[in-house]
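Handout, section B. The chain below has 161 residues.
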Amino acid sequence: MRHLVAHRKLGRTSSHRKALLRNLCTSLVLHERVKTTLPKAKELRPYVEKVITLGRKANKARQAGQSEAALHATRLASASFFPGNAGPDSRQHDPGATRTAGVAAVKKLTGELAERFADRPGGYTRILKLGKRKGDGAEMALIEFVGSEGKKVVTDKGEKK
């Protein structure tokens, strides 16, 4: 029985699962749609909903002139994103990169997305089932923000369609 068991393990350790959700959340905020497996999408939905709510709180506090509350909500939200490039001394990424994935995601979250969902009390995402994947038969799904119809799809491997 699964009494009081809250989340799916997704066949990963807790640190790997947390990294997976951060990466998917960053991709979803930046591209507004992600194609992934159904269990990953169902696990990502509440994670992203909480992040959007934090972005709304930060935007609302900034408009009210409460800079400390806005900074606090922004920092809480930024903990849910993949940091991106490690900086100018990083050997893995382009040292000339000025904007990392996490910084761009936080900026978009507290700006464009917070304004779009300012009047919406919740339910910022939708999951569309796409059927089974040909290779292994995994159930695929498209998770997207409400109101982002007509945008390009980003799969969880990074390819755009």
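Note. The chain has one domain: 14-86+98-155. Compare this with the example in section A.
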